[in-house]
């Protein structure tokens, strides 16, 4: 206990405006060391004594020892860095043992550059942990003390290597920003790493070792830690599975960001690719723990996954279905993805979800084992696309070569240097029909671009559209649906046109398939291959136009039907099941590829690249063809028109004569 005479002396000095020098027996020391720069309380026990509190007696000699002639900090001084833990340990035995076993204590014992001793953190004068600071200010001081070595000390930085930059990132984390904002509940370095018992993360006894991380984080995040404790991940950690994730595996360590921050790995757009995929896409881990390796890939290829890859912020991700912390296997009745709970889980986003939402695979894989119907639909379409588009390409290539050779021969012979334009003779498309074609062309183009933007969000041309800053990708879904409505409306109008107008009914009659179309196609192919000497004489529409028209009718019907199913997914999954919706999506995707390639390979060739019409057939703009163009492409129709004209002229002449 402090002697009464000492307390009287301390009280008198404090009343006079000075600081008490020390307990009785230290007056001789303070006689020399009481100048203005050192008039302070050296140890918190002295401060307690000066305030009349009960505290163990601490004198100058308890720390400094007797005069030995050794300078303070010299190798023989109690205040030499390597000897300080032992000196302080005379009173703080438990803390000294912790420090000796810590990374700091080991580095100090080894003489490592920049290794801290007691005063490196507590400083001199020793004014207690708070030193008169409030909780928030104290936390900032603690952080600055740690960073003064780990960032500012060259010796320490050299030992840590690249990790120094990792430490600097703490100040930009959600914890660091809260600390700088004055939040006294925000953690500092010591809240996670400990104070005197700081150990390397690989040490099983460290606060930040894998096995201890959940407990360390739970001191602030008790609710989340309790949820995690019930998860399959926590159970694996408890069994000693080193690969099982803990808090820092998902959230990061010093770089922890709020989940609403788009840079955070646990942000909605990132969690599937950055948090779940590294483990669940690993072949090694999948084989070791019996997990299905394609789970992350099938999700990435799903509508939800594609939307996330494209930048959607409201689409479902892994945690939306499996949960964030209380993740359980689908076989567990408490799991959110257990078959009995799927309707409720899906219903969180899809209002009105019923038990039919659970019929079908969530992670769709078009394989003969997991989903044979999707597998066969996809493969039949692939074969059909290869055969159809391949046949179109071969047909057009032969046509191009034949016409190019014919043109070259004509030029060499001096004939056909100028193809006479002829006078406008034949109305190929009325204004009404040209408007129908224009609306169809625009809507189809928008549908193709916005549809494939979703299917291939990382494609170079999609990235190019994003860089233009037009906001096209952000409004992709709206543009796609608007174009679908426009195209469907134009198709319904065309249906009325061919049903209720004279020209429309004639158009439909002229486009009707006939047996002659098959023979014309064979004769034309033979001509292009040099096996026949003359081309077929086509009428108003040949097999090229007819095949394109009826393919368009078929494709529009298929795309509109499957598109409606996909658009109103809540209703149609409830009716047709999740599997039925996946069938519609598969058909929609491959039909889109078939239609787009057909337009590129078939239609654009015949209206642009065809040597007979290059650089473009302008009928879609002017509505007319010249006599020379009619003779080249529709000779039978030209003959019929001329015959009809001659008949009319003769009839008119006869009427005039009579």
Structural class: mainly alpha
- Shape category: elongated
Q: How many beta-strand runs?
A: 2
- The residue fraction in helices comes out at 55-70%
Given as residue ranges, the uncertain stretches (5+ residues, pLDDT < 50) are 1-22, 36-41, 48-55, 126-131
Compute the CA-based radius of gyration: 42 Å
Task: Please tell me about this protein's structure.
The protein has 658 residues and is mainly alpha-helical. The protein is built from 34 helices and 2 strands. It has a two-stranded antiparallel ribbon with strand order 1-2. It is elongated. The N terminus is likely disordered.
Compose a concise summary of this entry:
With 658 residues, this protein is mostly helical. It is built from 34 helices and 2 strands. The chain is 59% helix and 1% strand.
List the helices and strands and how they pair.
Blueprint: H1 4-15, H2 27-32, H3 44-50, H4 60-64, H5 84-89, H6 93-101, H7 103-109, H8 118-122, H9 135-150, H10 154-160, H11 163-168, H12 174-180, H13 189-193, H14 213-218, H15 222-229, H16 232-238, H17 247-251, H18 271-280, H19 283-289, H20 295-300, H21 303-309, H22 318-322, H23 342-347, H24 372-413, E1 424-427, H25 431-455, H26 460-467, H27 476-500, H28 502-511, H29 515-528, H30 543-567, H31 569-609, H32 619-622, E2 624-626, H33 627-633, H34 635-657
Antiparallel strand pairs: 1-2
Helix pairs in contact: 6-7, 24-31, 25-27, 27-28, 27-30, 30-31, 33-34
């Amino acid at each position: 206990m402090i002697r009464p005479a000492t307390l009287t002396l301390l009280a008198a000095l404090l009343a006079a405006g000075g600081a008490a020098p020390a307990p009785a027996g230290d007056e001789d020391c303070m006689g020399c060391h009481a100048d203005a720069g050192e008039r302070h309380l050296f140890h918190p026990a002295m401060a307690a004594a000066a305030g009349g509190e009960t505290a163990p007696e601490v004198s100058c000699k308890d720390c400094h020892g007797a005069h030995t002639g050794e300078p303070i900090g010299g190798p023989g001084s109690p205040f030499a860095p390597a000897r300080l833990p032992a000196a302080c340990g005379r009173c703080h035995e438990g803390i000294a043992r912790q420090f000796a076993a810590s990374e700091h204590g080991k580095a100090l014992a080894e003489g490592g550059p920049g290794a801290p001793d007691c005063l490196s953190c507590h400083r001199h004068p020793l004014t207690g942990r708070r030193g008169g600071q409030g909780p928030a200010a104290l936390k900032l001081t603690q952080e600055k003390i740690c960073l003064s070595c780990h960032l500012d000390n060259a010796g320490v930085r050299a030992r840590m290597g690249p990790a120094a930059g990792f430490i600097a990132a703490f100040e930009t984390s959600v914890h660091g920003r809260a600390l700088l904002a004055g939040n006294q509940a925000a953690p500092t370095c010591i809240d996670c790493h400990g104070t005197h018992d700081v150990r390397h993360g690989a040490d099983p006894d460290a606060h930040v070792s894998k096995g201890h991380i959940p407990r360390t984080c739970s001191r602030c995040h008790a609710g989340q830690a309790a949820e995690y404790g019930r998860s399959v991940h926590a159970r694996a950690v408890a069994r000693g599975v080193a690969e099982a994730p803990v808090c820092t595996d998902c959230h990061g360590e010093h770089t922890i960001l709020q989940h609403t921050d788009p840079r955070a790995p646990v942000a909605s757009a990132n969690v599937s690719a950055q948090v779940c995929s590294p483990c669940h896409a690993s072949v090694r881990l999948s084989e070791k723990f019996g997990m299905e390796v394609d789970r992350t890939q099938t999700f990435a290829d799903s509508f939800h996954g594609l939307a996330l890859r494209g930048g959607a912020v409201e689409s479902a991700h892994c945690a939306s279905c499996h949960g964030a912390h209380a993740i359980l296997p689908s076989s567990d009745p408490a799991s959110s993805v257990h078959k009995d709970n799927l309707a409720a889980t899906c219903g969180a986003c899809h209002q009105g979800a019923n038990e039919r939402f659970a019929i079908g695979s969530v992670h769709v894989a078009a394989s003969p084992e997991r989903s044979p119907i999707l597998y066969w639909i996809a493969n039949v379409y692939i074969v059909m696309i290869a055969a159809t588009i391949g046949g179109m390409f071969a047909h057009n290539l032969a046509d191009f070569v034949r016409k190019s050779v014919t043109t070259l021969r004509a030029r060499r012979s001096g004939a056909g240097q100028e193809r006479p334009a002829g006078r406008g003779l034949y109305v190929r498309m009325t204004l009404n029909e040209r408007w129908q074609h224009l609306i169809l062309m625009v809507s189809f183009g928008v549908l193709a671009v916005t549809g494939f933007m979703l299917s291939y969000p990382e494609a170079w041309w999609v990235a190019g559209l994003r860089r233009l800053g037009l906001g096209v990708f952000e409004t992709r879904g709206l543009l796609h649906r608007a174009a679908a409505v426009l195209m469907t409306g134009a198709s319904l109008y065309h249906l009325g046109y061919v049903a209720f107008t004279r020209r429309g009914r004639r158009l439909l009659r002229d486009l009707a398939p006939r047996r002659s179309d098959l023979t014309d196609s064979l004769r034309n192919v033979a001509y292009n291959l040099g096996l026949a000497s003359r081309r077929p004489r086509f009428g108003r529409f040949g097999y090229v136009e007819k095949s394109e028209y009826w393919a368009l009718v078929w494709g529009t019907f298929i795309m509109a039907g499957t598109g409606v199913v996909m658009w109103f997914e809540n209703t149609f999954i409830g009716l047709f099941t999740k599997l039925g919706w996946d069938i519609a999506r598969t058909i929609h995707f491959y039909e889109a590829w078939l239609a787009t390639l057909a337009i590129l390979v078939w239609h654009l060739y015949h209206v642009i690249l065809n040597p007979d019409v290059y650089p473009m057939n302008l009928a879609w703009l002017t509505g007319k063809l010249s006599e020379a163009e009619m003779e080249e492409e529709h000779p039978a129709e030209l003959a019929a028109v001329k015959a009809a004209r001659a008949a009319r002229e003769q009839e008119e002449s006869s009427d005039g004569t009579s």
